[in-house]
């Protein structure tokens, strides 16, 4: 039990909520933690709730009754989301990102925890209203984005392997087609990694026609699991809609064109605000 001044209590309560998103916390937890009356705790939570909503940091939901409490739902406001997406497009448009073959270098962005946390919060906002049991991605570049999203939703992360690892135990493997050359690849998932009938949010760093993500969708079918949503950091705008294997997904940025000779990259906001 801690005896703190109200100002200090407000700071610590806020931190406590921020590190436990989507978790129901009974009022008695705070009352016992700070040795304060529930009425005082309720007043404190009302202040925190107002600040969260005014600053666009999320919602503080209150559930009444004996089994009730409060739950922090991370959300990013439209203005803040637009600012981040524009920043993402600006960074992706840097000419020195062009690699031989017209590929785009993105590893530096994926390696910045603070930047990925913002992207994860955007996906947490987009899919906040859906029932989700876990976040899934395929190794390796999508891992930071998946963990950032999982942290904001307070959900476990499931990693699909490109090659089966002995340490994963018994696994389910499937073949899938990916890339402009329609290459055949294999992905596998440990039987222990995912419970049957789970609702899964798939996230990935880049999507062209959607072959890799469709592979994960097919893999989920082997577990009798359901796709709760799909989020991609960047999608290719050079793929015709009829060639894309997915229709329902959320993207933060669209790579329209890469001019390797002219050293120009055209990037625009994805469908985050418009849906797909």
From TrEMBL:
Keywords: DNA-binding, Transcription, Transcription regulation. Belongs to the purine/pyrimidine phosphoribosyltransferase family. PurR subfamily. Residues 5-74 form the Bacterial purine repressor N-terminal domain. InterPro entries: PRTase-like, PRTase_dom, Pur/Pyrimidine_PRTase, PuR_N, PurR_Bsub, WH-like_DNA-bd_sf, WH_DNA-bd_sf. One of its GO terms (molecular function) is DNA binding. It comes from the Bacteria. One of its GO terms (biological process) is negative regulation of DNA-templated transcription. PANTHER family: HYPOXANTHINE/GUANINE PHOSPHORIBOSYLTRANSFERASE, PUR OPERON REPRESSOR. CDD domains: PRTases_typeI (cd06223). Homodimer. Transmembrane segments: none annotated. Residues 109-242 form the Phosphoribosyltransferase domain. This is Pur operon repressor. Pfam families: Pribosyltran, PuR_N.
């Amino acid at each position: 039990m801690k005896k703190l001044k109200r100002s200090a209590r407000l700071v610590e309560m806020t931190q406590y909520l921020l590190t436990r998103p989507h978790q129901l916390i009974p009022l008695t937890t705070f009352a016992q933690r700070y040795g304060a009356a529930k009425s005082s705790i309720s007043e404190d939570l009302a202040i925190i709730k107002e600040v969260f909503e005014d600053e666009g940091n999320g919602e503080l939901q209150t559930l009444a009754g004996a089994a009730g409490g409060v739950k922090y739902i991370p959300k990013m406001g439209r203005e803040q989301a637009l600012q981040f997406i524009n920043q993402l497009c600006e960074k992706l448009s840097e000419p020195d990102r062009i690699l031989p073959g017209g590929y785009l270098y993105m590893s530096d962005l994926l390696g910045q925890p603070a930047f990925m946390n913002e992207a994860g919060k955007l996906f947490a906002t987009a899919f906040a209203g859906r029932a989700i049991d876990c976040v899934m991605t395929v190794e390796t570049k999508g891992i930071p984005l998946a963990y950032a999203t999982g942290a904001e939703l307070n959900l476990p992360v499931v990693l699909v392997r490109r090659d089966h690892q002995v340490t994963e135990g018994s696994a389910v493997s499937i073949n899938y087609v990916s890339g402009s050359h329609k290459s055949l690849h294999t992905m596998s998932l440990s039987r222990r990694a995912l419970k049957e009938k789970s609702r899964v949010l798939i996230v990935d760093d880049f999507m062209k026609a959607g072959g890799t993500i469709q592979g994960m969708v097919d893999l989920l079918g082997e577990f009798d699991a359901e796709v709760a949503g799909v989020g991609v950091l960047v999608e290719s705008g050079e793929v015709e809609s009829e060639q894309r294997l997915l229709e329902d997904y959320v993207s933060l940025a669209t790579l329209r064109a890469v001019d390797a000779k002219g050293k120009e990259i055209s990037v625009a906001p994805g469908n985050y605000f418009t849906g797909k």
